[in-house]
Amino acid sequence: RSSDLRWYRDHSPYEGRIFLLEWRKEKMKMSNMLMPTLREVSGDVEIESHRLMLKAGLIRKMASGVYNYLPLGLKALRQIEHIIRTEMNDAGAQEILASALIPSELWEESGRYQAYGPELMRLKDRNDHEFCLGPTHEEVFTAIARQEIKSYKQLPINLYQIQTKYRDEIRPRYGMMRSREFLMKDAYSFDKDQAGLDLSFNIMKETYQRIFNRCGLKAIGVEADSGSIGGSNSMEFMVPSVVGEDDIVHCPCCHYTANIEKATSYLETRTNTDWLELTEVFTPKVHTIEEVAVFFDVDAKQTAKTLIYTADQQTIAVMVRGDREVNDVKVKNFLNLTEDIVLADEMTLEACTHAKIGFAGPIGLNVDHLLVDEEAAGLTNMIVGANQNDKHYKNVNYSRDFSGEIGDFRLVQAKDLCPHCQAPLEISRGTEVGHIFKLGTKYSKAMNASFLDENGKPQPFVMGCYGIGVSRVLASIIEQHHDDKGIIWPKNVAPYQVMILIMNMKDEQQIKIAEDLYTQLKKANIEVLLDDRNERAGVKFNDADLLGIPLRITVGKSITEHQVEIKARHEQDSHYIDIDEVVCYCENDRSASDLLEG
Ligand code: ATP
Ligand code: MG
Fold this sequence. Notes:
The structure is a single chain. By secondary structure, the protein is α+β, with helices and mostly antiparallel strands. 30% of the residues lie in helices and 27% in strands. The chain starts with a helix and ends with a helix. Adenosine-5'-triphosphate is lined by residues 136, 167, 169, 178-179, 182, 184, 432-435, 467, 469, 471-472.
C-alpha cells in the first residue's frame, strides 16, 4: 500500500528497499512470472483437466497424489475459495481453522481410529504419542462444540473451515480429482433438535447450488448413501462427466436421481405361486450364470446367484437374480458392518458351501448371514447352485425351500424401472464435488457432546456435516470448460480477467500502449496479465489459449488506427475497439459475468 511505502520512506534507514519494492511491483508481468507452460505433458496423465493443469503450469507433482500449486493454479484456487467463503458467510456460517494434526484419542472416542483403516495417515511424535492427519473433521468440530457451546441459546451454529486434508487413497488418480493431500471446505452444523437440523441442511443445500453456479459448474444434487444412519439424509453434488468415478441413476420422467450406491428400482411383485417340485440336476462343467442359462435353456433372470463375502470376521452370503450384481454398500449398511465386504477366498468359500467354486446356493449353506434380495426372493421355480460339486437345483422357491434375511441388495441397472414412476432408469457417470449429510447425534452421543436445553437438561447436539472438495472443484471446472487448445475459465474463477499481448517487443509504441492499458486496468481493479515476453506472436497466442484467460487484448499494428484487437476466449471471432474504450469494455464484461454466474 502506498501508506506503507510512505512509512518506509520516512522511517527506513534502507532507502534502497523502497526502490526495490517499487521496481518489483512494476515487474509483475509475464516476463518474470513463474508460469511454466509445457509443450507436451509426459507421464501418467489420463484426463484432460489433469493434463491441462500441468501443461498450463498450474500445478506440479511432488509424489503420487501430492501436488504443488504454482502461481496461476493457486490464484484460481483462491477465486473458488472466495466464492465459497462469501456464500458460507452469507448463509450465516462462521469460519474457523482447526488443526490438521489430530491426537488419536479424539478419533478413538468416536470409534473411527480403527474403523477408518489404512486411508488414515497416522504418525507419532517424539514422545510416542499417536496422531493422525485429518481426512475429515467431525471429531475435532464435535470436541470444539463440546468445550465451547454450553446452552441452547447459542444454537444453531454452523462452523466451517477451508483446510488441507490427508487421505492415503488406495488409488490416487486424475491429478487433483483424487489426491492424497487436497483442499476441502468442511462445515458442521449444531442444532438443538431434528427440525433445526432439517433447516440447517436445507440452507446448505441451497448454498451449495449457488456456490457451484457461481463457479460456472453444472452440478446436480443426487440422493446419496447415508451409511448406517439411513433415510434421505445425505445428498451429493455431482458434476456429470464421462471421466467421473461415480455412477448416477436418474429417471428421465420424474427426475429421481441417486448415486448407484443408494439407488433402488421398482420391485415387481410375485404373482405366480405355481411351485413345481424341487429337483436336483447333474450339471458338470456348468459354473457361470451364462453356462447355467444355456444348460437349462432359460433366461438368466430365472436363475439366482449366491456370492460369499467376509467382513468383520463374519461370512455373509448374498443372493441376487442371476443377471444382477450385488450392491456392496447396501449389504454393509444392512448388517451395520465396520469393514467393507470382500469376496471370500477359496478356502472360506469351500467351508461355507462344501463344494467347488461355482456351485454356491441358498439351500444347506453354512454362513453367518444369508441375505436374499427381495427380487430374487420373489422368483418362481428358480435355478440355483446346490452346494454340491457339479449340481444345481431347479424349481427352487423362497420360503418353501430356504429362507434368509430379505432386503434390497441389488445394484440398479440401466432400464430397471424407476421406484417412483416406473419409467426406465438411465445411468451416467459423474464426479462428486460436494456432500451434505445429516449426522444426527452419531458423533455427539459417542463423544458426549451436549448442551443444556430450556429445562436445564443436557442434550446431545443434533449435527450435520457439509463438504466441498475445493481442489476437485478446480479440476472439475477445467474438465467442464476446455477445448483442444486449452482452458476456458468461467469468469468468476479465472485467475486473471484480462490478458494483454504485445505483438512486437521491438515496437516502443506497442509496449507503451500495452503498459498504459495494464496500469489503467489494474487501477480499475481488474486482474490483468501482461504478456511482455520476448516470444514470437504464435507462441503468445498459443499460450493465451492454453491459459484460458476470459478476455485477450492484442496490442499490434492496429495501434496506428488507435485500436486494439479484443477476443473472448470462449468465442471464435475477435474484433477491434478504440484504445480508450478498453477499460470500460473490460469492466462491463466483468459485471455481466457476475450477473450470469452470481
Ligand atoms: P469419494 O467417494 O470421491 O472418495 P468421499 O465420499 O470420500 O468421496 P467426502 O468424505 O464426502 O468424500 O469428502 C467431501 C468432498 O471432498 C468430496 O465431495 C470430494 O469433493 C472431496 N474429496 C474427497 N476425497 C478426495 C480426494 N482424494 N481428492 C480430492 N478431493 C476429494
Ligand atoms: Mg473417499
